[in-house]
């Protein structure tokens, strides 16, 4: 029995070390680049959003807001308070929806992490998240043109933690905060991917998430809700699933529903949206993820 346990530990360590070697430097680069953007460019990105004129083109504003959302380095808890400050400054709800949606789904740090999955997956992730932000803004524009969609009462602009007068120390502190926020989940993700590689047959992954069937996309959308905890932590798991037969459409669906329904974010979203709009948000995310995933599989990107 002891020999069997030792053997399994060796196998798990082998898979763990291989995965770590493949994606470790993407994780490090993501933290560093994300911190550089947060320290030196975050205020510029958010000021571009603040300076958007209320009488400008709605569609152009929606597209621009989605771009700024992807570029913003903030996580959900930073995105909502900053969006509240935008709202107080008179920014339209459709622009806020576009910014918040794409910001929740993606940020510069996660883009670097996702490069470990290959260029095709990276492009699909960037484009699908960008389009999801645009779709959210358009829907608010169409159905809530004369109504208020968000409730930002009680939310104030987040306190800026990047205040050290020494720029180098400020950057190091930001990198350390990134390490604390993602490190544990990153290594847990690698460990889980090693367990998947050792004990889950490739045929099972192909059956669940593979092929061009809508079933695989729906399963990936559903699994993304409870499994997604941290963007960095899911990269090694996705890498394993893709290698074992997961379709690109299923991966895209997972990468949309996961961050959009991350359990630690839903409480804040419910407060901002209210129960009715919160349910609409859930329906939109699941529908967009499934439609996007099926279309990607049909196109054969």
SSE layout and pairings?
Elements: H1 2-40, H2 42-50, H3 58-71, H4 76-88, H5 93-105, H6 108-114, H7 119-143, H8 167-199, H9 202-209, H10 214-227, H11 231-243, H12 248-260, H13 263-299
Structural class computed from helices and strand pairing: mainly alpha
SS strand fraction: under 5%
Provide the low-confidence segments as ranges. Answer: none
Rg is 20 Å
Q: SSE order, as H and E? A: HHHHHHHHHHHHH
Distance between the termini: 47 Å
- Give the number of domains: 1
The 3D shape can be described as: globular
Helix tally? 13
Q: If you average the pLDDT, what whole number results?
A: 84
Report the major sheet: none
The percentage helix is: over 70%
Q: Could you give the count of β-strands?
A: 0
Quick recap:
With 301 residues, the protein is mainly alpha-helical. It is built from 13 helices and no strands. 79% of the residues lie in helices and 0% in strands.
Give an account of the 3D structure:
The protein is mainly α and 301 residues long. It contains 13 helices and no strands. It is globular. The model has no long low-confidence stretch (mean pLDDT 84).
């Amino acid at each position: 029995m002891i020999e069997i346990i030792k053997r399994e530990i060796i196998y798990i360590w082998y898979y763990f070390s291989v995965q770590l070697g493949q994606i470790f430097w993407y994780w490090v680069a993501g933290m560093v680049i994300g911190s550089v953007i947060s320290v030196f460019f975050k205020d510029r990105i958010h000021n571009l959003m603040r300076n958007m004129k209320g009488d400008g083109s709605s569609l152009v504003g929606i597209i621009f807001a989605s771009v700024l959302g992807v570029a913003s380095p903030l996580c959900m808890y930073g995105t909502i308070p900053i969006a509240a400050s935008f709202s107080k400054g008179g920014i339209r709800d459709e622009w806020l929806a576009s910014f918040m949606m794409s910001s929740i789904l993606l940020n510069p740090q996660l883009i670097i992490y996702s490069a470990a999955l290959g260029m095709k997956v990276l492009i699909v992730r960037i484009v699908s998240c960008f389009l999801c932000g645009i779709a959210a803004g358009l829907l608010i524009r169409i159905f809530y043109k004369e109504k208020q969609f968000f409730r930002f009462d009680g939310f104030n602009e987040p306190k800026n933690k990047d205040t050290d007068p020494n720029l180098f120390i400020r950057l190091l502190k930001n990198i350390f905060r990134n390490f604390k926020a993602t490190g544990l989940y990153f290594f847990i993700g690698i460990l889980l991917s090693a367990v998947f590689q050792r004990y889950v047959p490739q045929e099972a992954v192909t059956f669940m998430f593979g092929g061009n069937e809508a079933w695989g996309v729906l399963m990936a959308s559903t699994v993304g809700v409870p499994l997604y905890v941290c963007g960095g932590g899911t990269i090694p798991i996705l890498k394993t699933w893709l290698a074992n037969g997961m379709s690109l459409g299923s991966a895209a669906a997972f990468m949309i529903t996961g961050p959009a329904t991350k359990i630690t974010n839903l409480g804040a979203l419910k407060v901002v949206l209210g129960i009715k709009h919160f349910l609409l948000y859930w329906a939109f995310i699941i529908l967009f993820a499934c439609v996007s995933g099926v279309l990607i599989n049909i196109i054969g990107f």
